Amino acid sequence: MRLKQVITGLILLLTLAACSIETAKTPPQRKLIIASDYLQAKDTLLFHRFAKENAVHISIETMSADSLIERIRTKQANSGIDVVVLESLYDVTRLDKRGLFHPIDLRAKTPEAIHYSSLSYNYIGFGIDPYIIAHEQNNSYTIKTYNDLTHFNYVSALAQKHAPILLAPILKNLTEEQKGQWIKQYTKHAISKPIPRDSLLNDSLFNRLPILTTQSNFKLNKVSNSTYKSKTLLFPKKTAKDCYYNLRSLAVISQASNYTTAISFIDFCTTKKVNLALNEVLNTSSIYSNQYGIKQEDSPIEKQIPLYSNIELLLEK
User: Fold this and answer.
1) Sequence-ordered list of residues with C-beta below 8 angstroms from that of 286, at least 6 positions apart, any chain
2) CA terminus-to-terminus distance, the chain
3) Global pTM value
4) Which of 67, 115, 153, 287 is most buried as measured by Cβ atoms within 10 A of its Cβ?
């Protein structure tokens, strides 16, 4: 009987040892959960190299900024989200105001990543999305500058969250009275839909109007959207080298469960080779690119963020 117990004990020890060895060989895979208002679950393929090199399982949950705010508000540290990838810098600032982001560390970041990042608002910019005009091909361009938006009719394809970002650099040096007048004319000339039997804005003429949009939206819809097929892209310039833009950004959620992996992910997305390739797929411009006249302004885009709330109030009048 005793011999049998000894043998049984040895078998159990060997089994546990084998399990320990197997566990050591295959440690639990690390995770990274990304929340985004424009990336889809299938877009994890964009980060396949990072996942493979770091043995990380990446998940993308698509949700609006409002849904993201509500989820973190109700679940707090148990939200399950590590990184946010947001389309609009305006929404980034909304989340930061609520204290949802972990402070960023810009040490060891490239000069380009530092320039497009903000210690004050805890984001790191990784993609530039210029505000452009889509013009009818072989047609005289009525809108060549952003200021022309106050003089000629156009179709705005921009969501409301883009208005503060576009208008901040335009209005930053104007008086309050001038700001109000500029916005009044800007909104007056924005046509949302055709007007039947109108000699200037019937269906046919409406479709020929220039469209105010972003580079990414134009490229994304150029083939599939009939309104864009007949149009070509123009970059309005305040001066020879200026172009206003929205900044695609990354941020780490406060109390992220996978903080270290999240930081490594941001470093990956802002390395030059990866950043150039990533923005090519997303139809935006890399932070390392100086194409289309986009330049690194003397004052970073974060300097314009305090103007957003004032512009919102002016738009509501």
Assistant:
1) 127, 128, 272, 275, 276, 278, 279, 280
2) 92
3) 0.84
4) 287
Count the helix, strand and coil residues of the chain and give each as a percent rounded to the nearest 5. 50, 20, 35
pLDDT grade, residue 38 (50/70/90)? very high
On whether the 30-128+247-292 domain is CATH 3.40.190.10, my answer is yes
Q: Which amino acid is at 204?
A: S
- CATH 3.40.190.10 in the chain is located at 30-128+247-292, 129-234
Question: Residues near 242 by Cβ (< 8 Å), separated by ≥ 6?
Answer: 293, 295, 297
Q: What is the C-alpha to C-alpha distance for residues 195 and 294, in angstroms, rounded to an integer?
A: 36
Give the residue-averaged pLDDT of 305-312.
93
Residue 259 structure tokens? 């903080």
Q: How far is CA 189 from the centre of its chain?
A: 27
CB atoms within 10 A of CB 109: 17
The owner of tokens 């949950």 is: 61
**CA–CA gap between residue 269 and residue 95 (Å, rounded):** 21
Which of 52-66, 110-124, 237-251, 300-314 is the least confident region? 237-251
The residue assigned the tokens 């091909």 is: 137
> What class, spelled out in words, does domain 129-234 have in CATH?
alpha beta
